[in-house]
Amino acid sequence: MTQELERPLDFHSQQFRLFTLSPSDDIDSPIEGSIQRTDFNDATPFEVLSYVRESSKLMNLIYIDQEAVLVPANVGAALRRLRYHNEPRHLWVDFICVDQRSLSERSFYIRFMKTILRKCVRVLVWLGPNLTPPGEPSTASEEDVGKGLQLMERICNKDPSLLQDLELYGLELYRPYRAAGGITDPELEAKVDLHVTRLVTMEQQQDLENALQTPPAWKDLWTIRDICLAPQVHLFAGSHVVDWAKIEDFLGDVSYAKTIYGQDYIWGKVWILSLMMKMVAKIYHQRQTMRNVLAGSVVQSEQSLLAVMEQFRFVETADSRDLIHSMINLATDMDDFKIDYGDSPGRLFSNLTELLINRDENLYVISQGPWRSFSAPTLHYGYGYSISSPTGEKPSWVANFQKNSIEYGRLFPDNCPYKSGRPSCEVPIRVIDGKVLVAKGVKLGRVGKIKQSDYDYQKGMEWINPEGGPRAMRKDSLPMEYLDLYLDRAVLTESDATAQEYVTGESCIRAFWRTLVMDCNSHPTIRLSAQQIESEDAIVRAEWSRRILDMETHGSGSVKEPCFSDRKINELWDDVYFNWTFSMTENGLYVMLAPPAREGDIIACLDGCQMPLVLRPTEGVKEHLEIVTYAYVHGFMDGEATNSLVLQEKLRLQEQEIWFIAESDLIWDYEFGGG
What we know:
The protein is α+β, with helices and mostly antiparallel strands. Among the domains are: 3-120, no CATH class; 142-286, no CATH class.
């Protein structure tokens, strides 16, 4: 620790420190430099070093103001390459310029980094080599990364000799396929003239991957932030340097970029951006957005913290708080959010969740968005799991903002077609003792007995009904199974005059099949029209009755025929049948739900929540609930729980406070997900 770092900064005057790197023409000489404090009124033009913050197992010795200081090995390696021969170089390096022992200073710099990055001359991104401790996987060498950077620079510069080589390689590689496809040599050569077969060799592809895909910098949130905010960016590995502006020009020239291809063992010829430059392209687009923000051409909501975090939520982090801490400088809607490095992940997530609820006046962030804390199926294939279960790790109402694996994060890929609760909730939301969130809503009823034998089995082809086989092979017979389990086949043939009525007043069979498809079309997901309902209802009654007769007469049904005649309705059923299942509440409501919902759980419509939520009493106090998942409840997806006096009287529904609570008293100390 140098004497300069021991003196606190004056945050109000935006003081900061700069590191002056002493020159040397000997690559092996000791790294030396000095620290000075300054402000933007008289600061020397400076650059920012961006590097991956690796573990503290490997450290290098440098000399600052003639004092020996240990710095991370990546910092030492980068500084050694950054030294000028004859003049000093002015740098901002977080490990050197920030007192790492001071939580207040580190907290200040989370916000202040936006200013630092915008005021610097450029950001220098260290791609490697990244030094790793013995026993850990090594990264690409300086030479390997450098070869990739040089090749990318030649591609960006449209090097004529390189492009000709790529075209000839593409021609030769695909020449053997001409006979099978009836393609003549002149036709192949014409394709070369059109620049559609510029194909990198496997060796070149590996070089590009070494530079643009595998370096840890492309998986580091802090580096991503630095690139997005900097006026200029240089990528360097050892002595090899490429100006990011060249890559921007390449990505911006779409017609040219689309002529460069790589190879994939499964898919064959693949566009280079899809193959090895996905993260580079994503950063490029985010950087363009930040420029538009500065120019005032982006609507504020389009650059929300949640939107930015969702873009980069799969990036690896060492600390579960990093996603918020790094991305907050790319957002335009978080100026009022206080950052404190002393807060645990639980406290940070809780504070942000509370702020978002109060600002948006709804419960979207905890009930339906990709950051929800509970496991739940999405509408379109796949099962969207949250990393943390809602039991014991954190309050079920706190959004899970750590790097997560929700591949299909949203229930709907487009706008939610439901409005089960009031569109907004009362704010400020009540939070008691930092743990209990008090919402308002209507409890519709408890989940009754779930009768399917395959309900609680594992997903995938192992989700087996011992009698009927895999659910994936029973898609078209499932409605008949559910009908037998919960209702009666007689409801299909009842006349309108004698038909049993669902609680909404419609026939049971109509309510039943509408529940199976959640009352929606697919692609895009929109509600069924009155005309669709009338038309499909008549067909369902006739067609399903025929199938039942076939089963009774011949012992088998036409299970390979679509369940619904309307293509878009049937596509919706294709989407939901595998993960969702039909059931009923104890008071007779038709629902579609999925594990981990179980018998006895409470289903409620909450103010500010578009979907009904499945809730479960905690073991300690039965009035305290945790969020389990969401559900579809037929007849209550358009605000009927609070707006329909008829349904309220029939089911004796009433609005009430609903309390969500943490199960663990150690919530604020528990470092879930790392950190």
